[in-house]
Predict the structure.
Amino acid sequence: MEFPFDLTPVLGDRFCVVDQHLRPAGRPGPTHRGDLQQQLRTVIDELGKASAKAQGLPAPVTSAARMESNRHVLYILRDPGGAAHRPPRGAVIGFLKVGYKKLFLLDRTGVHVESEPLCVLDFYIHESLQRHGHGRALFQHMLQSERVDPRRLAIDRPSQKLLGFLRKHYGLDDPIPQVNNFVIFEGFFSNRPVLREEAEPPWPFNLRPFVRRDGRTEPPAGQTDAPPPPRRASSLGR
Ligand code: COA
């Protein structure tokens, strides 16, 4: 994904980490270059739109404004450019957004556990560059920076591509059924500090999901009149 400005002062090297302060090139401290911050906002907004389109979402879940109002972290991967076959100003390959959320999650025995895992919230590699290992490079960079085991992550509404990605690269192929949009895998609860355990939490968390073969869940039989959980608002503490 190319932009009509030089990406080097905006994103820096290959990996750029952006938090709610939206600092160009991820550099700490105040920036005196308002134009760079505006360009960073443009990059984030365009990436968010492209990701939403790729996933068939009605609206982007990633934007500069949303970044400012949440404590999320955005990992951006770029092609620095320069070589003869590459765009002279560089290009953005994709991004990964993560953040901590308080969630009610079911363990294998069906007990509800309140915990606050690092969640994968959005993930996108440009269409022309998918299946070239860029997603894995970005994911690995995030795992190292956040010092987290992939089994400890909660994934917000993963696409089939992402489920395949997690299976292939991290051996995550046995989801623990949930009643919300999040997917977790075996190993999620091992040695994790839990905030609270509840045998029977309030509706709608007390509903047992029907688990499809692909690991996704459907509402329990006879509960189809129940209002569905709001899109991406199933976490607590927001
Ligand atoms: N169809 C099926 N699986 C795919 C796929 C596709 N079009 N693209 C990637 N994958 C999975 C496969 O397991 C693939 O391995 P394979 O080629 O041996 O089958 C593996 O990912 C490739 O790994 P890698 O090249 O490191 O991943 P990537 O750079 O393609 O990035 C995604 C993975 C999911 C970020 C990328 O495919 C993407 O942006 N998809 C569209 C947006 C999306 O679905 N995001 C997830 C948000 S929930």
